[in-house]
Amino acid sequence: MTSELTSICHYAGDIAAVAIVSEDGLLREYGRYWTGSGNTNLWIDENLLVLEELYSDVMERLQYDMIGRYCISTKPAFHTGLPDMTLIHVALPLIGSNTRFDNVSQVIVFSFRLDSIAESSGLVGKSSQDHTYGYLTDQDDIIIYHADRQYIGMPEEEYLQGTSDMELHRSLDYFGWKAHILIDVDNIREDVNVMYREGLIFYVILLMLCALIWQLLMRGILAPIASIRNAMDKIRAGNLNEKIEIKGSHELWQLAAEYNDMVDNLCRQKQETQRFFLEKMQSIEQRNQAEREALESQINAHFICNTLNAINYNVMEAGNDEVSSLLKSLSNILHYTFSRKTEYVTLEQELEWVKQYLHLQKYRLMDQFEYEINYPKEYGEWPCCKLFLQPFVENSILHGFENIERGGLIQISGHVEQDRFVIRVSDNGCGIRPEVGQALQSILEEGKSLKLAEAGSGIGIQNVVTRMRMYFGERFEHEWKLLRGKELVSPSGCPSRRRIEKRKFLIRGLCLYGGHKLQHA
């Protein structure tokens, strides 16, 4: 039996002792904290009277079949050897597998640690900041548990005398006890005031910190705007070289980067405007000079044309058709060049003039080259600048056929490419010297012609490009390329088979008339 009591006592940590009592008194007792430790048992002396009362109460409940066949006692509250341990005792009828309640003869009494139960349940105790206190009272309003042991056994009325704390309680129906909580309102109010003052100080500090952070953030955010404003002031003063130093990647700094791109575009537009203005002035100056020269040579030009026509009649009467054809071509060239008041002609007129010019050059150079002119006839009425092809044809003759005696070929072709009309002048000559090619490329791409003008060449090409830009505006495109071309078989003057260079001049924009694209009929 002792081993069974030991097992029951150690089954739960809140059980302090187990005892079995019968009509004859205490049969067996085991104390978890005092048996075997040299301390006396719990149920001795006057405590035996309490044990007998518990036995009598349980047996009476069984006899009258009362609801709740158990009894609870808070006495004895302590063990003499363990005064810090508060005890509560529960007496139950001891029955076996074959025992019924009507023939029970023994009662088992469990002694529990009341302090452990109360603290683990959270019903009573003391708060960490001394704001609330909890305690238990029995049916007689006697304090049976309190965190401060000096109040155990004291009547509740006596305990509450002289205190202003708020008291709350709740009944524990099964035991007939009450769980009480005392709230120290003054202490809580004082702590709340302290928390309010500390919170107010913290809030003020936090508000100042937020204001400082906001100021720093706004300064960082608005820095690009200040930089843009300063840069705009300098640009307003005429300084287009002012750039904003990019110091971040957020949207305003991206705006500053876009501002820098805008300034670059303004600089480029300014340079383009200056270049266009310079070309315009050069064109006006060249036009004025040409008008003066035309006025000065008008009388001589008419005289020469009339004289050539008179000679041509004599040659025709003499039956020399070849010389007559040459004189007629020369007369038409001079008449086309000097007699027209406007500098704008049709494409058919311009190509017809080039054809007569090539005819004379071919005769002059003793059939050094042949020429081909092909273009869609429906574009013959399209407007263009007068004499815009002559400088390129002349360069093919002077530079392309410089070391060729026979086999040269000049091709002039026109075709439609997307929404533009393209004219290509090409030859199969030996090419031009590198320095001359670079100078011509500079004229076409950058408008630089001073060095060539000083050398006596390149003026015609620069004049044509300037006039074409003025006539067609930005829609005019030009392209000058030195390309490797086809194989050439020449009977003399050049190797029989060799790689040669081909020059191409691409003029786009001739399909534009009066500021609008002409549609094919």
Q: Would you give an account of this structure?
A:
With 521 residues, this protein is of the alpha+beta class. Among the domains are: 114 residues, 2-Layer Sandwich (Beta-Lactamase), CATH 3.30.450; 62 residues, 2-Layer Sandwich (Beta-Lactamase); 180 residues, Heat Shock Protein 90. Helix content is 46%, strand content 21%. It contains twelve helices and 18 strands. The strands form five sheets. Strands 2-1-5-4-3 form a five-stranded antiparallel beta sheet, sandwiched between helices. A five-stranded mixed beta sheet has the order 11-13-14-16-15, with helices on one face. The protein has a four-stranded antiparallel beta sheet with strand order 7-6-9-8, with helices on one face. α5 runs parallel beside α6 and α6 packs across α7. The termini are far apart. The C terminus is likely disordered.
CATH topology (level 3) name of one domain: Heat Shock Protein 90
Query: Order of strands side by side in the largest beta sheet?
Result: 2-1-5-4-3
Instruction: Find the CATH superfamily of one domain.
Output: Histidine kinase-like ATPase, C-terminal domain
CATH architecture annotation of one domain = 2-Layer Sandwich
Morphology call: rod-shaped
H and E order: HEEHEEEHEEHEEHHHEHEEHEEHHHEEEE
Number of DSSP strand runs: 18
Question: Terminal Cα separation, in Å?
Answer: 126 Å
Low-confidence stretches: 449-457, 483-521
Strand content: 15-25%
Radius of gyration: 61 Å
Give the % helix. 40-55%
